[in-house]
Specification:
With 240 residues, this protein is mainly alpha-helical. It is built from 9 helices and no strands.
């Protein structure tokens, strides 16, 4: 019993000393706890970093796929290889919508004065062509005339002057009464007819330039005849 007492007394004394310490007995093992916590935290951070790398990898994969999609979406649909050898529809582009003058859509745009957009541009072309047709009708030779029709207004004036001229050789040319009347009418209205003609040419030229500018597939010069056919425009009225 006496042998055990000193050992017991020592333990009690040690306990009193530990209790008396200002930082408490639990702080004796704090470094060990901190290391363990640090190791746990380190493992956690390591896991976090690994997860971060995984996300980064995912981000790269998404970026690559997105880049592929962006490249494919970035291609302009109107760019077609070998347009000249493509179908008529692919060559005409927006002018597939071209319609004759009497089509309701064209008439609606003309009545509303709306010459914007594809149909509006076609309508503007029709208006310009109609003005040109009216001028052409004014100097067209009478039906049944055996004379070669004039190609333009200047030729018509020249022919009218010849027909109404005093020095006409009857052995070379015989003019009918209708041709003489036509020549007289043409020359009497020469000034206004010239104004109308110049205006019609300017408007039709502007319409041609617009069609050329907004052709989104093949060049206008290549598809022009086809588009005019879709619009129901006769070749004999094509002065440009």
């Amino acid at each position: 019993m006496s042998a055990k007492f000193p050992h017991f007394a020592f333990l009690i004394a040690l306990g009193l000393v530990l209790v008396a310490l200002p930082f408490g007995p639990q702080m004796i093992f704090t470094p060990g706890i901190d290391v363990a916590h640090a190791e746990k935290g380190g493992n956690g951070n390591g896991g976090g970093n690994s997860g971060g790398n995984g996300n980064a990898g995912g981000g790269n994969a998404s970026s690559t796929a997105g880049g592929g999609n962006a490249n494919s979406l970035g291609k302009k649909p109107e760019i077609i290889e070998a347009n000249a050898g493509g179908s008529e529809q692919s060559q005409l582009g927006r002018w597939n919508a071209a319609k004759p003058y009497d089509h309701p859509a064209i008439q609606a745009h003309i009545l509303n004065g709306n010459f914007k957009g594809t149909i509006g541009m076609v309508a503007a072309y029709h208006v310009a062509q109609q003005a040109m047709d009216e001028v052409q009708d004014a100097y067209a030779l009478p039906a049944g005339s055996q004379l070669a029709p004039p190609a333009d207004l200047a030729a018509a004036f020249a022919l009218a002057t010849t027909i109404t001229g005093v020095a006409v050789d009857p052995l070379q040319t015989t003019y009918t009464a209708d041709e003489v009347a036509w020549a007289a009418q043409l020359l009497s209205n020469a000034a206004q007819l010239q104004i109308n003609y110049d205006s019609a040419v300017a408007d039709l030229t502007a319409a041609e330039e617009t069609m050329d500018q907004y052709s989104n597939r093949e060049d206008w010069a290549i598809i022009r005849a086809t588009v005019r056919t879709k619009m129901g425009l006769a070749d004999e009225n094509d002065l440009l």
